[in-house]
Amino acid sequence: MSIPPAEDLAEAPAEAPAEALDIPLAELTDADRELIAFARDVVDANTDGEEGIHTMGAAVRAVDGTLHAGINVYHFTGGPCAELVALGAARAAGARELDAIVAVGNMGRGVVGPCGRDRQVLLDYHPGIRVILPTTRGVRSVRIEGLMPYAFAWSPGVGATAYPSDPVDPVESC
Ligand SMILES: [Zn+2]
């Protein structure tokens, strides 16, 4: 496929909302509120302040109901977000199937949605997990798939695949 000349790009095509972007949001459950409070308590107890290294707390709930916390480890080389630390902590405690995740900022910043890297990791390693995040309708939970329409997907040993696992003919789809 060749790249169209710049003059052909000047007039943008009409856009229409995609069905896949109609993201189903769920009201928070009592268990979700407990998870938020857990993440908040972890960051409140362990943050080192506004300009600190540890500014975000996260918590995950496993399908067995256990809660596991993480806190970010900021570093310019790419230190992990709180969400990724929480995933590791859950795994270290033997929790393999996870139900929900949330991150809360320090200094009373409340619930903060996951960054793009976290979303990709969640999609690839914990498909179906519910992510609690601020939305236009307030704090709600949404399945990770709802946050990653038309996503790239990756798995160890397989690499990148079309997502969802419904292969698209690369020629027909151009
Ligand atoms: Zn992140």
UniProtKB/TrEMBL annotation:
The protein, known as: Cytidine deaminase
Domain CMP/dCMP-type deaminase per the UniProt entry, residue ranges: 30-155
InterPro entries cross-referenced by the UniProt entry: CMP_dCMP_dom, Cytidine_deaminase-like
GO molecular function: catalytic activity
